[in-house]
Every structure is written in structure tokens, then in C-alpha cells.
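REQUEST FORM: STRUCTURE PREDICTION
Request ID: SP-0412
Submitted by: Lab K.M.
Chain count: 1
Length (residues): 249
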Amino acid sequence: MKARNLLLALSMMGSAAFAHADNWSWGDVSANYLDWSSRTTGQSGKKDFAYLELEGGMGGQWGELYGFFDLENPGKSGNGQEGHDQRYTTKAIARFNMTRIGDVPVQLYAHVYDTRGNEFFTQNRVLGLGTDLKFGNLTIKPFIGAHNELDAFGVNSGFNGWMAGYVLLYPFSAFGQSFLVSQWHETEFARKDKFTPNYNSHTGQNGAIALWWNVSKHFTTGVQYRYADQKLGTSVYQNAMIYSAKYNF
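STATUS: Completed
RESULT:
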């Protein structure tokens, strides 16, 4: 169960690769440390944690696929104290090109986000439309779709409003080095009461902005500013820094 969605995403990637020989693809493994701000830990009780990540993607004229699998608190007990137990997080995103309006692609967009740990589980599913916009070196990939949620081992499940967001990528060079600015952002809106007992709003924000330094072909390091508001189980604004080192293959 823990890796079911990751295996599904990888099998989808493998099937697509077999059918489309002209695909591009990439992957990496990374070690990461998430350091919540003192205000966040004081107000929400969240704990800092380390995590290992396997990440990859591929694409072609047909669209693109992306996925990651995180092991949080590696080496710790799967049934330990809250905030110190192992957790597993998976996300798979699919964008399939359907048609074009002028130079702008219209894509079928779908994603599944799944996280689980000791007596905890939530899964978010989104199905809608997306596109892929390019302005020189800047790429923005917006989406909007219906949001379905399964929470707390089925205690609450079903339609939970809508989600809109984007991924932003901006590669650049400076001081003879290769860098990348990236951001992902999601806004949930028109959420249902049964899914929002801990929030003061039916709208929630969630995302991160990062600066990556491509030290070499196989090694990347970076720092991310992680943020959330009316999200992640609490109504307070939360922010953290994430420090990462990646091996690219």
C-alpha cells in the first residue's frame, strides 16, 4: 500500500516510454532536511524532519508525466511518537496534450497525492485541464480541476471543491554556473465543511519556491522556502526551509 501509487506512476512511465521512442526523461535521488520556523513549530506543534526522495519525469509530443516518492524520518519506527515516526508520501502528475488553441496547448491534467504514517492517511486527487506556457527561458504550467479527497482512512471522502495551481521553471546562468528557480503552488477553494474542521477558511494555499544550483551533470544542491496557509491540518500560516542534495541520473 505504501508505494502503490509510485509503482503505478512508474508503470505508466514505462508504458509510455515503450510507445514513444522520442521521449525525454530524467530522474534523481536526494537527501533533504525540512526545518520549520520556530513560530510554526510553536503554533502548530510540527516537527522538523529529514527525508529521502526518488523523483523522475518524462515527456514528448503527447504530454508529460512526473512523480516522486518520499521516505520521511528514515530509520525511525513506523509506529513511533507523532512527528518522529516514518511517513511515506507519493505524488504522480499526468498532462496529456488534447488540442491547441493557437500556440497554446490544452491538456488533460490529473494528479494523485498520497501521504500516510502511523494512524494517519490522506489522499488528494485532481482531474481537470492544464496548459504549458513559455516566455523565453520562463516556463509556467497552470492547471485547474475538481478536487476529490480521501481522509483519515475513509472517515471523510468525496468531492472537496476545486484546486488551481501552477509549476514555474526558470533556468539561468550566473558566475559561469547553471541555476534554476522553480516554484509549485496550489490553491484549494470552495472546500466542503467536513474536510475543514481545523481551518478558518474554505480556501487554502500550499507551495514552495526554490533555488537550485547544478554543480555538475550528476550533482544538484538547493534550498526551498516551503509555505502553507489554512492547510496541512492547521489554520495558522506555516513556513520552513528545505535543504537538498541530489544525484541526477
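NOTES: The domain at 4-248 is CATH 2.40.230.20 (Outer membrane phospholipase (ompla); Chain C).
Reviewed by: T.R.
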